[in-house]
Every structure is written in structure tokens, then in C-alpha cells.
Amino acid sequence: QVQLVESGGGLVQPGGSLRLACAASGFSLDTYAIGWFRQAPGKEREGISCISGSDRSTYYADSVKGRFTISRDNAKNTLFLQMNTLKTEDTAVYYCAAEVDDSYVRGQGTQVTVSS
To answer: What is the pLDDT of residue 89?
Structure first.
């Protein structure tokens, strides 16, 4: 069964850091591109970062460039998102998602709240 499970969200003060994880099962992360998007209340869904399956090339939205880093541990089949210098506007539910053999797969999401 193809599945993604996120973890690592929480409450953090502005300027702080969090590391999100996305554990994949049923497929290998080094075969498919996978990414992170977020959804804040009243706002449109925003794709923030992705990494290719083969050459590990990466993409970042301007809103997170220089602050967030996407990475992948093939041995653990887990995707990560290191988030530094967090801002209140980063508050959202964060999801990992991939298209696996023409099927869209998304995790259940993890809440990130940036507040003092």
C-alpha cells in the first residue's frame, strides 16, 4: 500500500526551527519526485518545495527559499523539510505528496504554528 505519513510539526516561536519528516511506504523515494505543500486557513494551497527522484534536483518557492531545505534519506525512505528562521506567516498544515504511477498520494498533514 502506497502511503505517506508526516511528523514533526508543532508550536515554535518566530525565528525558531522545526524539522518535518515524511515516511514513505509502498514505493521508493529515489524513484519518484516528491514535495511539500502547505495550507493555511483562508489561503490557497502553496507548493513550497520538491525534490526529484533521480538527480535530487530541488525546487523552492520564493517564500521559503534560503530558509527551508528539502532532503531525502533513501535508506530510511523518508523525506525531510528543515525549516529555519520561521515566521508567523509559515503557520499552516504541511503535507508531503507524490505522484506514484499516475496516482496522487498525500499524507494526513502536520500542523506547524509559529507564534510568540
So the answer is: 96
The answer for residues whose C-beta is within 8 angstroms of residue 104's C-beta and 6 or more apart is: 97, 98
Residue of 96, 88, 83, 95 lying closest to 113 (CA atoms): 88
Of the pLDDT bands very low, low, confident and very high (cuts 50, 70, 90), residue 56 is confident
Q: DSSP strand E in the chain: where? A: 3-7, 10-12, 18-25, 34-39, 46-51, 58-60, 68-73, 78-83, 92-100, 103-106, 110-114
Give CA angle at 107 (30, 87), nearest 5°: 95
**Cα(37)–Cα(48) distance, integer angstroms:** 5
